[in-house]
Amino acid sequence: MIDLRLLRDDPDAVRASQRARGEDEAAVDRALAADVRRRGAIAEFERLRAEQKSRGKDVAKAKGEEKQALLAGVKELAEQVKAAQAEADAAAQEFDAAMRSIPNVVADGVPPGGEDDYVVLKEVGAKPELPEGLDAWRDHLELGELLGAIDTERGAKVSGSRFYFLTGVGARLELALLNLAVARAVEAGLTPMITPTLVKPEVMAGTGFLGAHAAEVYRLEEDDLYLTGTSEVALAGYRADEILDLSAGPERYAGWSACYRREAGSYGKDTRGIVRVHQFHKVEMFSYCRPEDAEAEHRRMLELEEAMLAAVEVPYRVIDTAAGDLGSSAARKFDCEAWVPSQGAYRELSSTSNCTTFQARRLGVRERTEEGGTRPVATLNGTLATTRWIVAILENHQQPDGSVRVPEALRPYLGLDVLTPA
Fold first, then answer.
1. Count of other CB atoms within 10 angstroms of residue 377
2. d(CA 392, CA 400)
3. For the sheet containing 251-260, what is the strand order?
4. Helix-strand-coil percent breakdown of the chain, rounded to 5?
5. How far apart are CA 344 and CA 137, in angstroms?
6. DSSP 53-93
7. Residue 239 falls in the annotated catalytic set
8. pTM of the full structure
9. Three-state SS at 249
10. Catalytic residue among 17, 231, 351, 353
C-alpha cells in the first residue's frame, strides 16, 4: 500500500496520481477520513482501557460497600471498553480497505492516460524484409505446424481454448530460450529459483493481484490457494515478514515457473496461436533493494531484458507505459515489444516494473536502518523470457521453405542451427 505519511502530508500528490491513472480521486479523501476515525477510535479505546486499569487498582484496595459500588462501576466500564475495542477494530478494517483501494503513486515523468497513451522511448533493430519467394509472411502458428512444433488443435481437445502442446523442436526451443535466460541471469548475479505456483491469499493480495485484475487469477476454492500468473508473486512472498540486510546491495532472484492466467475480458483477442494463452512458462527477475536505489535497479533490469532481445535477434521497441496501464503495484513500467511481421505490429514480450515500497508494505518486508530502526524496502520485477517469445523468434527468422534460422545465442542450448519442416 502507499506510504501513510505521504497521504497525510501531501494528499494532493496522491490525488494527482489517481488522476493520471484515471482512478477515483475521492478514494484519497475516503482514506484520510478513515485515518481520522481510526486514530480517534484507538485513542478512545486506550483512554477507557487506562481508566479501567486505574479503577481496578481502586477496587483491590476497597472494602465492603465501597468495593461493591466500585465493582458495579468497573463492570459498566468494561462494557464501554469492549464497545470501544469493537469500534477501533472496525475503524482499522475500514482504514485498511480504504488504503488498499489506492494503487501505487506513479513516479514522476510517467505519461498520464490509458493503454494507448504510452511513450516510445526507442526502437532497436531493422525490421526484416519479406523473404524472396513468399507472397506474405507466415504467422507463428503456420510455421509451428510446419515444423511440428506447436499443436493448438490437440491442446483445445485436451484442455479447451487457449491451450496448446509444444512438440518436438517446439518444446526444445522453449527450453533453450528459458535456459539461456537463466544463464544470463546467473551471469548478472541473480540467484535462480524454481518457485511454487500455488500461493496463499495473503501473498497474492500482498503483491496487488487481487484488486482490479482479480478476475484474471485462477483460484482453488477448496484449498484457498491461488495459481500464480508470474513467479513475481512467490518471490515477493519469499521474504514476507522478514528484515533484510541490504548493506551489500540488492537481493536479486530469477524465478522459473509455469504461469496461469484466466485472460478474463480478452474473449476474441489473439485467439490464434500462442500469443495470449492460459498457461505458459517464464523466467522472471525479482529484486529487493533500498528505496533510493530502486530507479537504478529498474534501469538495470531493462538493460538485461534488452540484452536478451538482442540475443534472440528480433527488432524491438521500448515504451514508457502510461499510468492507467501500470497495474496497481507499479509506480513505473517499461515494456519491451518485439516486431511481429505477420501482424505488422509490435507486441509485448517483456516488461519491468518498479513497485517502490508498495508490495513490501503489504507483505512486511523491511530492512534495518543505520539508526537501528526498520523501513520498507523497494521491490522490482522484470521478464527475461517467456513462451510468447517463440512467436517473434519463428516469424522474424522464417525462410521461404518454411524453415526457421536459429539465433546464434540459442544454438548451444538447442543443438540446432535451423529448424526444418517436419
1. 28
2. 17
3. 119-124, 316-320, 332-340, 345-354, 378-386, 279-289, 251-260, 191-194
4. 45, 20, 35
5. 10
6. HHHHHHHHH--HHHHHHHHHHHHHHHHHHHHHHHHHHHHHH
7. no
8. 0.91
9. coil
10. 351
The answer to whether the beta carbons of residues 377 and 354 sit under 8 Å apart is no
In which residue are the cell numbers 541471469 written? Answer: 185
- Chain centroid to CA 301: how far? 14
Query: Which residue among 37, 261, 317, 361 is the active-site one?
Result: 261
Amino acid at 393: I
351 beta partners = 335
3-class SS at 310?
helix
Say which of 49, 123, 348, 405 is annotated catalytic: 348
Write down the residue that cell numbers 501531501 correspond to.
10
**Pick from 22-36, 205-219, 311-325: least confident:** 205-219
411 catalytic residue (yes or no): no
Among residues 179, 121, 175, 173, the alpha carbon closest in space to that of 303 is found at 121
51 is catalytic: no
Residue 57 pLDDT > 70, yes or no? no
404: which 3 cell numbers?
526457421
